[in-house]
Write a structure and sequence with these properties.
By secondary structure, the chain is of the alpha/beta class. It has seven helices and 15 strands. The strands form four sheets. A five-stranded parallel β-sheet has the order 2-1-3-4-5, sandwiched between helices. Strands 10-9-8-12-11 form a five-stranded antiparallel β-sheet, with no helix packed on it. It has a three-stranded antiparallel β-sheet with strand order 13-14-15, with no helix packed on it. A hairpin with a 2-residue loop joins strand 8 and strand 9. Helix 2 packs parallel to helix 3. Pfam families: LytTR (PF04397), Response_reg (PF00072).
């Protein structure tokens, strides 16, 4: 399995160092390099790589913002961050980063990070092949839930957990919201960085301060829709929403 990788860093010496380290890692294929965050966003949309290794403090747009934009674009790509300190480590892992390396980067530490990314990519590919068309397999502390996709109203991310809402039950899991979205069909949309909604189950959409709220029959809790996503919700639902 070739892991198509993009490296991003303003420092050309750091890019060259990472590229040199990765030469010995036969499964890594460096397909492009970037100097700033805006360029990285463009390259991600162009290439849709398997892995990103990036400095967190990029010019124009930092690495965390790049990762957030990936979520908005439904791009579930593992990120390995490089940083001068541990200052942004918590924020990076909260977003679902695969690893966070503090400079100077050791070859052995980089290899461990790429191994973690490799396992994540392999797990996604395997589950994409094995998952049943109708059920979403969800890990929890004692095993697996198999939830009928048609029963899912929305999924909410709170800190490191995801909550899957159906009409009669809420399922709690440690699984990343991006990994869950990867296993769902086009009925579902990442409406906000912390929410996935089932467009066929939305009963109403109303405006709420800086975003919008989708409501569902049978549950009191609603799901957020960002301003960036509201037009896509309108288009894909095929109706004019009164807001």
């Amino acid at each position: 399995m070739s892991i198509r990788t993009i490296i991003a860093d303003e420092d050309n010496r750091m890019k060259a160092c990472i590229r040199y380290y990765l030469k010995a890692y036969k499964q890594i294929e460096v397909i492009d390099e970037c100097n700033n965050g805006m360029e990285l966003v463009d390259k991600l949309l162009q290439w849709q790589p398997d892995l990103v290794i990036t400095e967190i403090d990029l010019p124009l747009l930092n690495g965390l913002e790049v990762m957030k934009r990936c979520s908005v674009q439904n791009l579930d790509i593992p990120f390995i961050f490089l940083a001068d300190s541990e200052e942004f480590a918590f924020s990076a892992f909260e977003l679902g980063a695969t690893d966070y390396l503090v400079k100077p980067i050791k070859k052995s530490r980089l290899y461990k990070a790429t191994e973690k990314a490799k396992r994540k990519i392999a797990w996604k590919n395997k589950n994409k092949e094995l998952v049943s068309f109708n059920n979403l397999p969800v890990k929890f502390s004692k095993g697996m839930h198999y939830i009928k996709k048609e029963d899912i109203l929305f999924i909410e991310k709170i800190e490191r957990k995801s909550y899957i809402y159906t009409t009669d039950k809420v399922f709690e899991t440690q699984e990343n919201i991006g990994d869950l979205l990867y296993q769902l069909n086009d009925t579902f949309l990442l409406s906000h960085r912390s929410y996935i909604i089932n467009l066929e189950k939305v009963a109403e959409v109303r405006s709420s301060k800086e975003s919008f709220i989708a409501s569902f029959n049978g549950v009191e809790r609603g799901a957020k829709i960002s301003k960036l996503k509201i037009n896509e919700v309108k288009r894909r639902m095929g109706i004019q929403l009164k807001m």
